[in-house]
Amino acid sequence: MSAQVLDGKLLAKNREQLLKVAVDQLIAQGGRKPALATILVGDDPSSATYVQMKINACERVGMGSKSIILPAKTTTEELLTEITRLNNDPEINGILLQHPVPEQIDERACFDAISLEKDVDGVTTQGFGRMAMGEKAFGSATPAGIMTLLKHYDVQMEGKHAVVVGRSPILGKPMAAMLLNANATVTVCHSRTVDLAQQVQKADIVIGAVGKPELIKAQWINDGAVVIDAGYHVGGVGDIEKQGLETRVSAMTPVPGGVGPMTINALISQTLKAAQLASL
């Protein structure tokens, strides 16, 4: 058996073509050019790279972007002031606060200050609650991108046992909620889980969302399982050890080129949706 490659890079590229058509149509109908504001606090090079990738994606589909770079010593109050200004700017449809922020900043307070209508990265408590309850809200970008990828490749989720390794508020927890809403049976594992290997062995779908290189071992994973790796670390490895999986599992994401491009695609897709809603 050869595993199907869940190619997020290719899917994102194809979806960008459709997004560009939709952006052009919105503008032609008299709507404002959709625009995403990105906020980067500090000078972490990895964060700066991620923000630039999102700005580049906006440009490719004809959307506008506004880059805001704040010094590492920025306070919570100063960041909240900037977010409030963007909330009140009619030319901005989406706000992305790049994670993580410096330790002196109350990140949760700043995330929750983003207006629900502009929470295109799906980071607010209110947005998470609405999404989990099956109400309209923008989903957290990485889980939303993963769901789009699974649906595109017709991966069956209903009735399947999904194991999510990781419980962060912007990845593991919303991923579990989205899978539950798709009628999967979901187990969430974390640093206090007893016998992680045994839990992973039960999975039809394994989601690596823990942020530790190759924590999840290939030998734990069932033959025929679907493997989604949301991690990316130095050396081009993910959260899941891949050696030998390509001949045993039914489908898997590459690292890189799987989840990452779909995260960005979800972000710009939701920014367009916010612009469309604002034009009604």
From TrEMBL:
Limits of the Tetrahydrofolate dehydrogenase/cyclohydrolase NAD(P)-binding domain: 140-276
Q: Which residues form the Tetrahydrofolate dehydrogenase/cyclohydrolase catalytic domain?
A: 6-121
Give the originating organism.
Neptunomonas japonica JAMM 1380
Q: Which HAMAP family match?
A: THF_DHG_CYH
Record protein name field: Bifunctional protein FolD
Entry-linked InterPro entries: Aminoacid_DH-like_N_sf, NAD(P)-bd_dom_sf, THF_DH/CycHdrlase, THF_DH/CycHdrlase_cat_dom, THF_DH/CycHdrlase_CS, THF_DH/CycHdrlase_NAD-bd_dom
Note the subunit structure. Homodimer.
Which key words tag this protein in UniProt? Answer: Amino-acid biosynthesis, Histidine biosynthesis, Hydrolase, Methionine biosynthesis, Multifunctional enzyme, NADP, One-carbon metabolism, Oxidoreductase, Purine biosynthesis
| Family stated for the protein in its record | Belongs to the tetrahydrofolate dehydrogenase/cyclohydrolase family.
Q: Which gene encodes it?
A: folD
GO biological process entries: L-histidine biosynthetic process; methionine biosynthetic process; purine nucleotide biosynthetic process; tetrahydrofolate interconversion
Cellular component (GO) terms are: cytosol
Molecular function GO terms recorded: methenyltetrahydrofolate cyclohydrolase activity; methylenetetrahydrofolate dehydrogenase (NADP+) activity
Q: What does this protein do?
A: Catalyzes the oxidation of 5,10-methylenetetrahydrofolate to 5,10-methenyltetrahydrofolate and then the hydrolysis of 5,10-methenyltetrahydrofolate to 10-formyltetrahydrofolate.
Give the pathway listed in the UniProt entry for this protein: One-carbon metabolism; tetrahydrofolate interconversion
Q: Reaction catalysed by this chain?
A: (6R)-5,10-methenyltetrahydrofolate + H2O = (6R)-10-formyltetrahydrofolate + H(+); (6R)-5,10-methylene-5,6,7,8-tetrahydrofolate + NADP(+) = (6R)-5,10-methenyltetrahydrofolate + NADPH
Enzyme Commission identifier(s): 1.5.1.5, 3.5.4.9
Binding annotation for NADP(+): 166-168
